[in-house]
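INFO batch 0412 | record 1 of 1 | parsing
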Amino acid sequence: MPYIEGLGTKMKLTKAFTKSIHYMLGTVLEERARFFKKLYDEVSNGPSIKQRYVDIGAGKLINTKVFGEDFEEIYALDVKFADLQSQEPKTRFIVGDAQAVPLKAGTADLVSMFSVIEHLPSPQKALCEAMWLLRPGGELIIQAPNPLFPVDLHTGLPNPFFIPRFARKTFLKALGYSNWLNNVYSHPKEKDLTKWLSGTMKLTGVRRVVYPSHFVPKRVRAIYNFLAKTRFLNLVPLSYLYVYKVIR
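INFO prediction complete | emitting tokens
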């Protein structure tokens, strides 16, 4: 295992901890999608027309299936898919880039981006694509990490964005996660998203994402429950869910 060396100390990086986070979330993916849907329902009744739904960064289609339940057409876009096409005949698969979506303008009623925005080299361009897809009255759901949360949920590391830019690469290389910089580019804030979407979309609601404790690995559940009880997670949630509506 890699070590961090500095100021005469060594800290062992437990990659097993990171794996346990990903494994635990993997066992509750549908429940997590329902949790996101509940947060969305608190903000919106959904678009008035429910013909076409586009899930950008669809992955294993868990969120796609939950949010697309009431739609006539469901499109799932990602850079690649496992062998899911035969399992989901109702879903139309698009292998493509969130920054260049190959669909006609003004044809979607709902577009979602779950845990996607931070992985894009040009998030502003991707949001322009999402706006371009939507009909008047259509909605955009964005779930994105909290830039102020102290832990990076992709790796279990201290949030690398807390490290000065000039030292970030060295820090990640020492931890054995030098490729992180090629996979996570930014943590956009609400003001950034709203600025990029201004003129066409308005923010209709925001929800803090604080998972139920059984979503969290047992080894850190006591700490998580303590943070929840002290309301730290209300002040500094893991992520946010934003809902924007087309106003043009």
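INFO post-check: The longest helix spans residues 29-43.
INFO record closed
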